[in-house]
Each structure stands twice: as C-alpha cells, then as structure tokens.
Design brief:
The complex is a heterodimer of chains A (281) and B (472).
Chain A: H1 15-24, E1 40-44, E2 58-59, E3 78-80, E4 87-90, E5 93-103, E6 106-110, E7 112-114, E8 124-131, E9 138-146, E10 160-165, E11 173-179, E12 189-194, E13 205-212, E14 215-220, E15 223-228, E16 246-254, E17 270-280
Parallel strand pairs in A: 3-6
Antiparallel strand pairs in A: 1-17, 2-7, 4-5, 5-6, 5-17, 7-16, 8-13, 8-17, 9-10, 9-16, 10-11, 11-12, 13-14, 14-15
Chain B: H1 2-22, E1 43-45, E2 57-59, E3 68-71, E4 81-86, E5 97-102, E6 115-122, E7 126-133, E8 144-151, E9 156-161, E10 173-179, E11 189-199, E12 216-221, E13 226-228, E14 233-237, E15 243-248, E16 253-257, E17 263-265, E18 270-273, E19 277-285, E20 288-289, E21 293-298, E22 315-319, E23 342-343, E24 346-348, E25 351-357, E26 361-365, E27 378-384, E28 394-401, E29 414-421, E30 431-437, E31 447-454, E32 463-471
Parallel strand pairs in B: 12-21
Antiparallel strand pairs in B: 1-11, 2-5, 3-4, 4-11, 5-10, 6-9, 6-11, 7-8, 7-10, 8-15, 13-18, 14-15, 16-19, 17-18, 19-20, 19-21, 22-32, 23-25, 24-25, 25-32, 26-31, 27-30, 27-32, 28-29, 28-31
The chains are: A mainly beta (281), B mainly beta (472).
Chain lengths: 281, 472
Amino acid sequence: MNFINKNKSKLRLPLFAFAIVLFSSCENGETQTVTTKSELVWSDEFDTDGAPDSNKWTFDIGDGTAQGIPGWGNNELQYYTDRPENIVVQDGMLHITANKETFMGATYTSAKILTKGLYETKYGRFEARIKLPWGKGLWPAFWMLGDDADGTVTWPNIGEIDIMEYRGQQPTITHGSVHGPGYSGATPITKSYELTNDRFDTGFHIFGIEWGENYINYYVDDVLYNQITPADLPEGANWVFNSNQFYIILNMAVGGNFLENPDLNTVFPQTMIVDYVRVYK
Amino acid sequence: MKTIHKIFSKITLLIFLVAFIFLGCEREISGEAVVASFSSTADVFIDSPVGMGSDFYFPYAGSKLTAWSVDENEAYQGTASMRFDVPNEDDSNGNYAGAIFRIEGAGRDLSQYDALTFWVKASQGVTIGEFGFGEDFLENKFRATIQNTSVGTSWQKVIIPLPDASRLTEERGMFRYAAGTQATNGFGYTFWIDELKFEKLGTIAQPRPSISNGEDVTVNTFIGVKINIDNLNQTFNLGNGQDITITTAPSYFTFTSTDPSVASVNSSGVIEINAAGTAVVTASLNGVEAKGSLIINSLGSFSFPPTPTRNPDDVISIFSNHYTNTNVDFYNGYWQPYQTTESADFSVNDDDFLNYTNFNFVGIQFASPTINLTSLANLHFNMYIPNEVPSNFDFLVTVVDFGPDGVNGGTDDTRQQLFVRKTPSIVADSWMTFEFSLNGLTNRNNVGLLIFENINFSSLTNLYLDNIYFYN
C-alpha cells in the first residue's frame, strides 16, 4: 500500500471489453463474464464470535516502528492492536474499527490481519464482501503481498496486489492496483472504479480479483472493471506475479500519504465490516 | 424505484380487491376504491415551470416582487433558465429577492427521491443566503434550507438532500430562495437556475440530525412557559465526500420528553412546562437519534410582577402587556464587538418577559419616532434576578435624549444616569419595582434609547425585565 495515487485511470482494456461493460448495464442484455474460477479452496466466513480465527490470521501490532517502517512507510497515524475495541468477529462479520484515542503515543488505533505464514498461494480468485467506513482520512484495504523468503526479497520485488483501497472522503470510489519493481509507490498500475447512484459505506459490496498467469482481473460486485497484464507495465519492468506465493491482508489505516489526515469533521469510531473472504481456484 | 412501484401497485391492488369485496353487493365499484395518490413528478423547472400551475410565485414581504423571470437567453440545458435579479439594497421596490414556488393545486409525493437539485450560476461570484423547499405559506411544515451557498460565474450543481423523504407525500412547496446584497456591498447581481428537479441520487448518506445546534442546553424556566426547540439541523455526507447541513423544520423530527408531567413537547417542537422538576427533551429524525438536547429545569410557579395600575393616558410604554407599547426598534441592539448580552425572552400564560442572558449591557431603542417625555418625567420598570444577586452587583440605567436631530449620536444628545446600587432591597427570585424621576434630563422631547448595564465589574449575568414605561 505504498501508494501515492495520481488518480490517473489508465484504460487498459481492449475495446471489446468496453462493449461488454456497456452491455452489463442493460438489464436483460448479455451478462459480463466476471469470474471463471468457482472451486472454493479457502475462506473465512467469520461465523464464530470473538477474536479472528488464529488458524487463519495473524496480526500486525504497533505503528510500524518495530518493523523498521514507522507510520507503516506511508506516514499513517494509527497504532494497530488486537484488542476487541479494534477487531472482533460478531454477528457473522469481522469488524475492524478505527478509534480516535491516545494509545502508545499514537492518536488513533485500528487493526490489521494477515494470512502470512498460514495461507499463501499463487493464482486464484480472491474476493471479500465488505461494508466500508466513511470520512476524511480513513483508508481501509483488502490486499495481498508476495512472500519475502524470510526477508531475502524486499518490497516491491515481492509484489503487491491491492484488491480494494478506498479513501473515506471519496465514498463512491474504490481503487485496484499492482505494485512491483519499477511500478510501485507513487506509480503503481492502477484503476479506479466509481459506483453510480450508490456508495461503498451504505451497504456491502464484493471486491475481487481473478489472478492467473500473466493477468489480474479486477471486479466490484458484478462488474469487471479492469485487467492488468505484463503489457501494462513500464518498458523493461518485471511481472512479479507468476512465481511468488501471496498472502491476504485486511486493515484500516488512518491518514497517510494515500489520502489526507482526518479532520474535526471525521466521525469516529469508523468500522469496516467484512462478511467473508473467499479464495477459489 | 422499481420495487417501490411494485409494492405500491400491489397495495393499490389489495385495496382495490378489499373494496371490491366490501362493495360486491353494490351495482358498481365505487370510485373510492382507487387509492388517492399524489403526483410524483420530479421536474420543477426545465425550460419552463413544470406542473406548477399559473399562480405559483409568492415573494416574501419586503422583497422585490419582480426579481424572478424566465430567461430564454441563458440555459444550462435546453432553451431557458430561471433568472433572479437581486436588487440593490437601496431599491425602493424591495431590497432583496426571495420567494416560494408553490404548486397551484395538489401537492406532490416526493417520497421516492432523496434530493432537490439544480444548476446555478451568477453574474459575479456571490454567496446566496438560502435555497430550499417545503415552504407553502400555510403550515410551512416541511421547510428545509441550505444556507450561504457559494455560487460562481459558471454553471454548478447544487444538491439539497431531503431531510426525510418519507414525510414528503403531499408537498406543495417546491422551491424557496432568499438572496440579498450583504456580501456585495449592497450592489445587486443576477443569478440563474436551471434543471430544478427532485432526484434519487443514491449517494446521500450518513444522516446526523441535531437539535439545539447539537449541544445539551440547560434552560431554567417556570410552569406555563412555552419554549420552541430551535437550531434544528440535518447533516448528510454527499457522494463527493462533502458534508452538507440542512436547516430543518420541526415536523421532520419526533420529540420525546423524559418526563411529560414536567415538560411536554408537541410535534411542532414546542415544549410546555407543566410542573416543577427536571425533564430532558431529545429528538430523532427518521429513526436516527439527534445530537443535542434541552434540559428543562422547571423552578415551579412563576411569580408575576405587580400589575401596573396607572392610567394608560399617563403612560408611554416600552415593554408591557398591560399597556399598548410605543414603536420599539429593538429590545437588544447587540452592539458589536463589546456586547455579550443575548436574549432568551419568554412568555408565561401569554404574558411576555424580557430575559437577558450572558449580560453585560443592552440597549432598547425606540427612535422611530423618538418620544416626548416633557410631561412624563418618570421611568418605571420591574426587574427579577434569578438564583442569586452577585455580591458585586452594580447596575446603571441610562436614558438618552437624541436632541433636535432625532438620531443617536451627533452633538446634541443628552442623557441621565440612574444608579441601582446593591442594597438589602436588591434580592433574588423576586420581582423588584424601580421608579426614577427624569427631572435631571432637561431636554426630554426626543428620547430614543434606554441602556441597562453592569458597572464597576458587576457580574450580573441573567435578569428578567417587565413593565418598562414612562409615566406622569
């Protein structure tokens, strides 16, 4: 998520894809083929109240200092905890809550969970059904990082796939991106998707990718809105998504480079509610 | 939208069937079997007014009646827009522009929409005071207004969310506006509005209603007092992430009192004090709890000041329900920047009282015209100090004669100072009567101002006044 967005929406789909998108908005017209992989291989339905399932998720705790990246590399303001005030499963949903409170020297708390070391894989369809928070300075994400081979490979060479990133001050827009060597930080390969007559904080939406050899397709609900392939990379850049094993991350950051910091009008607490995370092959 | 239509048609069908069954023995189905529903037309003005009838434009009192017209040379879309010519502040035909647009005939069902929207631009960058809807000059029940919209010289879209669409099933007030020249040094300008219509945007969310400006306000009061809950707002987050606050009529809210035997509250947001005690009045809007409350601290029965007995022929009254008051310009001039005094005037059983809070000084002006006190050389007023008299109490009343020029200031003003010092007769929670001779004011045929003030660092902050009059 080292991602200073430039708001450029690169149109990388061939023309026929546009036609499909247009058709999909017609009620009885042809339906777009959004996904092809349907064998469920891993999921968390968040059906057991309490802390997240420790067989599936591990925590990142703190403000990044212990990891050598204070502010998690993006000048983020939150301190991640595993307390129920910040992360809990209840009523069949995972709740990640950002609070405004003084805690361990930080002014906000939140949570971040990862499948690192517990579930890592290559290729598949990864999706989550999420109701997002709202307000300036809130930065929830559903994303993936490549394995670092015990620290011997560093970001961005490990690869990063951002399935959903969102700015609380833009409640109708989500962003899907990849970061790798030569296309990271401020210059990822990215595209935004804007809902019409709806927003991401008033109901649940499905955020997903279908990832295979030399492609990553991005979709929201039943709309395929982008495909990223090696052809989209800067000249000479390496496609780092055909070899590495990737793990899944859910978190909510507060403030940071990707967006502005919260202000007095930002309402706290804010909660990102996740109905499920599923992986299909 | 489709679902709503479907449900509605099902309800219609159901009622139709029920009616059919009930009326089955009649010779024909009664016309009453058709559900009375109101038009859900969205458009208000596109290239001309839509479904408004012919008699729909009702200007506010004092505004320029001819401010509105249809302009066929300007349009955001189509062939025409509405043009509003805001007059200069010295225009003798009205010094601002403002009106309601009320449907001539039955109201509309707006419950399927979430916003009134339009495109606007102005002849220069301006801040326009009020845009809204829901005012019909009848009950004005569902008035909703956004304040101080910044309007530039190119077309921009304005969104006014409906505070609670489910309440708007029969609304005639389609649009309202008020535009003055406070921000343009008194000079007029023109603005245009086009594509005025109700929409279902689907991007209006996060309702945050509030009363009393979102604060918990304590009010010390008495049996018989009626208090209007004010500063009612609804705030939404728009699709662009911006918050917008709508000044919202009481009828959108549902009010609750923790103890109606102490303070009851009606659907119009009027609180009536019934007994001594404490009650908290809160509200909700469309199921969302409103921020803010009124904490009613009823001190019990109100003691009234002595009823004036002087012959009205010997009196010029400034503030009393027992005499006809002379023309008063204001009871609280709010002289910036030094005045802190606010007004919380109230009525008990239709008897009115001036209540100055956060008091330091206040002026009551009655200079239109000034009054002649040549033969009425005395001042009377009643004062009540709630709770306690501050130990450093020191109070001054000043009567000002404006002189031959009849205006405050200049070189011919004269004044008499009347001191109210702290004595054992200055007591709290009881009406006191003060009477002063004005013989020290030699010229008193152009009296126009009374000033009440704390002096010598007196910390009196709260007082009631009544029966302020001059007498022979």
